[in-house]
Amino acid sequence: MLSEFELIRRYFTHPAPHTRLGVGDDAALVRTRAGMELVVAADMLISGRHFFPDADAKQLGHKALAVNLSDMAAMGATPRWALLALALPAAEPAWLRAFASGFMRLARQHDVALIGGDTTRGPLAICVQILGEVPAGEALMRSGARPGDEVWVSGRIGDAALAVAARKRRVKLDAHELVRLQRRLDAPVPRIALGRALRRIAHSAIDVSDGLCADLGHICVRSSVSAVIEFARLPVSGVMKKRLDLPVARRALLAGGDDYELCFTAGPERRKTVLAAARRAAVHVTAIGHIERAASRRPEVRVVDRTGRLMRVESDGYDHFR
Ligand code: ADP
Ligand code: MG
After folding, report:
1. Ligand 1 mean position to 23 CA, how many Å?
2. Among 2, 189, 299, 304, which is 20 to 30 Å from 106 by CA?
3. Above 80 in pLDDT, residue 313?
């Protein structure tokens, strides 16, 4: 039987770049560079709530870090250090090896050092804390959207939620379609390069984790503005496009979440600059609407069809307590 310390040594002790002291002491020691602010976030994944209990361990390792990197992307930050707190039902070497390989592979891709964590027995839960850096004053926040801004989104949205709907048999997809969409759910790509490229360009940003309308709604509330989304401009995959008449697909698109794309706003005069930044980051971005003054100080997100008519959105997004 693997001991706690042997487990940490074997699977979670790796060379830690740009770190003074990593795994093995009571705490880690890091040094931020001059002129930088420390950006800190944590995200938890619970079995049966955030992932199916039979989820592949390697993909889980990837996803646990990816959702945290996505928060760094949304801040325009460069991720540098991660901590990993794990509750495990049992110390299974095969599971641990796969989990650690998925986690560390993504960490190395982004030059992120795993510098500590905690390991305990319990129902499977994965909590990652991420630390990053951003030049002082340049972090992207939810609070900077201004009336007149264009609203942008990266990549394509709704696929991850459509995959969940298919797994719950609420929509039928062909086998090859499900495989493609399932990848979006299991292996989100954090938009780090885009977030960094948008520093000093975007007025506000958020990552789409709870659903487009809900997350854009967070920007609106924090910025005291309203947003209008033009449904026809939303970037969708071929699989989604074929099903846009189904309420379940529309819900996935507008309120699904789990895409980990970036939603951001920028002045309309910066359109070319935004497109150039996205090209540098090798990510596709689409303008999907605009920001308005909030009527009677009530921030809201409205979705309109081709003719400008208001569309009903059934659910705003995921809320664990509703
Ligand atoms: P403490 O008792 O001081 O909390 P632990 O025995 O829990 O220390 O952990 C020993 C070292 O291993 C610490 O440096 C801790 O940060 C690290 N560690 C524990 N679990 C993990 C993990 N899952 N991933 C990475 N580092 C870990
Ligand atoms: Mg501990």
Report:
1. 6
2. 2
3. no
Scored b (16 or more CB within 10 A) or e, 18-38 reads ebeebbeeeebebeeeeebbe
**What is the C-alpha to C-alpha distance for residues 292 and 262, in angstroms, rounded to an integer?**
20
- Which residue has the least CA distance to atom 19 on ligand 1? 118
**Residue 82 above 70 pLDDT?**
yes
**Is the distance from the beta carbon of residue 314 to the nearest atom of ligand 1 less than 6 Å?**
no
The share of the chain scoring above pLDDT 90, in percent, equals 89
Q: Are 161 and 252 in contact (CB under 8 A)?
A: yes
Please name which of 152, 129, 126, 163 lies closest in space to residue 258, comparing C-alpha atoms.
163
- CA–centroid distance, 104 to ligand 1, in Å, is 16
Task: Using the CB atoms, write b or e for 144-177: b if 16+ within 10 Å.
Answer: bbeeebbbbbbbbbbbbbbbbbbeeeebebeeeb
Q: Which ligand is closest to the CA of 27, given by its number?
A: 1
φ/ψ of residue 218, rounded to 5: -65, -40
pLDDT tens, residue by residue, 157-166: 999 999 999 9
Global pTM value:
0.94
Ligand 1 close to Cβ of residue 86 (< 6 A): yes
Strand order in the sheet with 125-135: 36-46, 125-135, 78-88, 113-121
The label of the residue with tokens 């706690």 reads 4
Instruction: Give the start-end residues of each E strand in the chain.
Output: 36-46, 78-88, 113-121, 125-135, 150-154, 204-207, 225-230, 262-266, 285-293, 301-304, 310-311
pLDDT tens figures, 122-154: 999 999 999 999 999 999 999 999 999 999 999
Does any ligand 1 atom lie closer than 6 A to the CB of residue 8? yes
What residue's CA is closest to ligand 1, atom 11?
24
Nearest atom in ligand 1 to the alpha carbon of residue 26 is: 3
227 lines ligand 1 (CB under 6 A): no
Matching residue, tokens 């944590």:
42
